[in-house]
Design a protein that fits this description.
Blueprint (H helix, E strand, L loop, with lengths): L9 E2 L4 H11 L2 H5 L6 E5 L2 E4 L27 E2 L3 E2 L8 E6 L8 H15 L3 E6 L22 E6 L13 E9 L6 E11 H8 L4 H16 L24 H10 L8
Parallel strand pairs: 6-7, 6-8, 8-10
Antiparallel strand pairs: 1-2, 2-3, 4-5, 9-10
Helix pairs in contact: 3-5, 4-5
The protein binds zinc ion (ZN).
């Protein structure tokens, strides 16, 4: 299952006075290169947040992945002109674990699933440790605990009692927010969330071969985080339900390679 938050970035130039005041204090070298172009910001709650400039050079850390398969895939946010909305592949994608409610023995599955996503997308996934933030789709894009940047992907646990999205056969939900870059209209994914149903995962892990199926569920949710939508083909992990596949299908691999080949945000 997927959940995606479509955040619309606001242009700071709509409030010219506020922009001039705010930018004088916080002007950065990169802003001078974009002189005359308004810096984008988002409204979150009551606060207006300037979209941070990405860290480091706009260069890929690894080659674009050549997918070892073909098949069906689809993207959650697919702009007919700009293409699918994806993570910036030139910057490491951090993820944190919210361990509250995690079934015993489940943590290795999360790391293996992240490795499988990094290998298929070519995006550098960096595990940043645990967090006390609960995994929830109502999370804020910017949080003091993570510093002056977009919140990393959070992977955590819940139950269908606490999270109605997990009702019935749903074992996990995943998605990211689509947000404008610091300048211009190109959108990027940020602040992904994966919420896993701890009761369902415990049940799965108690049967022979269940660990691999549980890991496949986490991989499916990561597929949503990096932008993939469901497909009808039951040979793909991105099919809405799965009771037998333990690894990516051909279309998954094709879609994940594209998910990792998006535009780098220029600074
Ligand atoms: Zn799904």
């Amino acid at each position: 299952m997927s959940r995606a938050l479509n955040v619309t970035a606001m242009l700071a130039c709509a409030v010219a006075g506020a922009w001039a005041m705010a930018s004088w204090q916080g002007i950065e070298l990169e802003d001078l290169k974009h002189l005359g172009t308004p810096r984008n910001s988002v409204i979150e709650g009551d606060a207006e947040r300037t979209i941070p400039l990405p860290d480091g050079p706009s260069e890929r850390h690894s080659a674009v992945i050549v997918p070892q398969g073909k098949g069906s895939f689809s993207f959650l946010f697919d702009d007919p002109d700009a293409g699918p909305v994806r993570y910036d592949p030139c910057r490491p994608l951090g993820w944190v674990l919210s361990p509250e409610g995690m079934p015993p023995g489940a943590e290795p599955l999360l790391h293996s699933a992240a490795d499988a996503v990094a290998a298929a997308t070519g995006i550098e996934l960096v595990y940043e440790g645990t967090t006390t933030e609960p995994a929830d789709f109502e999370r804020e894009l910017f949080q003091e605990r993570y510093g002056d940047r977009f919140a990393p992907v959070v992977v955590g646990w819940s139950t269908e009692g606490e999270t109605p999205d997990l009702a019935g056969a749903v074992t996990g939900v995943g998605g990211s927010s689509a947000v404008n870059g610091a300048y211009g209209s190109q959108r990027y994914l940020h602040a992904g969330v994966i919420v896993l149903d701890s009761e369902d995962i415990v049940r799965l892990m108690s049967v022979p071969g269940g660990d691999d199926l549980a890991q496949a569920i986490v991989m499916h949710e990561w597929g949503h985080v990096v932008g993939l939508a469901h497909v009808n083909d039951t040979a793909e992990l991105m099919n809405a339900s799965n009771s037998k596949l333990t690894t990516w299908g051909g279309g998954d691999l094709e879609g994940l390679a594209i998910a990792g080949a998006g535009p780098c945000e220029d600074v």
